[in-house]
Design goal:
By secondary structure, the protein is an all-alpha fold. The chain has 16 helices and no strands. About 40% of the residues are buried.
Length: about 350
């Protein structure tokens, strides 16, 4: 006979939202943002029975359409052959893991860091950072087009999720190019996690593609962080945690940061802006701009389901084109411009 079911009073321990919020009061560090202390949402909502405000935001981002599209968006290598190259989705998941590891070690809000990390790149256009070069000329008076601002726009307008202020602020300023910096230490965890993740997996992808060998990498990386891959990630996380504990803010020590910057400069020279990648970048820019120009002339082709009719036409068109996955952008390009005997770009 099966064993009798345990008494319901002994089988589980119920942790409601109020229980979790009470735990954060004593468990989190003074620098942490507790969910109960959030600046709130643009539109007030009744609290959830079980989830904190930041847990709700994490779940909303995970279920958004923009998050799902990341699986078919480029990280670095455009339309690569092989199943193991990093995509924008797998990059996002790796950033989330690293951000949570940093937040956990520093007794910050893991859930806030997770929500920011999951949403930080949803604004990327097809073909990665190339989209910023392609779309910026359409916004000459506003400093260009940036994926971080587009990520916020998606969650505030195109898929209005009514996220907490801290999550939106962290997404806005996750990039080191953005000033002012984010307001929370959890968002600073995401800033470091983003750079740790992309430098590591982009170097591994470049080796996988045969564009470089580990022996080609700056010697300082091996001396300070070990072998490319998990050794780098663990060592960089430790460098941030140890320096942050001494500094009282999330940061990496100067010596480690200098080595990481040396790798970043090397990757730009050899990989991101290398000869092979430059050819793909030029083709990707051509695809994106021709799609934008076409829809500026034919706004009736913009789908009603993904259109902010209160925005100017350029913004409406770039919302649509930037939201495309790589393969949808290429398919649309072929449908609109492809002719017999014409070589398809990026293929």
């Amino acid at each position: 006979m099966p064993a009798p079911a345990p008494s319901s009073s002994l089988a589980f321990i119920l942790r409601t939202r109020t229980t979790r919020e009470a735990e954060e009061v004593t468990r989190l560090a003074p620098a942490a943002v507790r969910a109960a202390d959030s600046r709130g949402r643009a539109r007030p909502e009744p609290p959830d029975a079980y989830r904190t405000a930041f847990e709700r935001d994490r779940d909303r981002i995970l279920h958004s359409k923009a998050f799902r599209r990341l699986k078919h968006k480029t990280q670095v290598f455009i339309d690569p052959e092989g199943d193991h190259y990093v995509t924008r989705l797998t990059h996002t998941l790796q950033v989330t893991q690293i951000a949570r590891a940093l937040a956990a070690a520093l007794s910050l809000s893991e859930t806030l860091a997770e929500a920011i990390a999951l949403g930080h790149d949803v604004g990327h256009s097809p073909f990665g950072h190339t989209g910023e070069d392609a779309l910026s000329p359409y916004f000459p008076t506003s400093g260009g087009w940036h994926h971080a601002a587009q990520s916020v726009r998606i969650f505030e307008v195109l898929e209005d999720l009514n996220l907490c202020w801290e999550v939106r602020d962290g997404i806005r300023a996750h990039s080191w190019r953005i000033d002012p910096p984010p307001a929370t230490q959890e968002a600073m965890c995401v800033r470091y996690a983003d750079r740790i993740a992309y430098l590591t997996h982009d170097a591994l992808d470049a080796m996988r593609a045969g564009l470089l060998d580990e022996s080609d990498l700056p010697r300082s990386m091996g001396d300070r962080f070990g072998s490319a891959g998990r050794d780098w990630i663990g060592a960089m996380i430790a460098a941030v945690v140890e320096e942050s504990m001494m500094a009282g803010v999330v940061r990496m020590d100067d010596a480690s940061l200098a080595v990481m910057h040396e790798l970043r400069d090397y990757m730009f020279e050899r990989i991101y802006l290398g000869p092979e990648q430059r050819r793909h970048i030029a083709e990707a820019i051509e695809v994106i701009r021709r799609l934008v120009d076409h829809h500026l002339l034919h706004p009736d082709e913009l789908p009603v389901s993904y259109r902010d009719t209160e925005a100017d036409l350029v913004t409406q068109v770039t919302d649509y084109v930037a939201g495309m996955t790589d393969r949808y952008a290429l398919a649309t390009y072929r449908r609109l411009f492809g002719r017999p005997g014409m070589a398809d770009p990026i293929l």
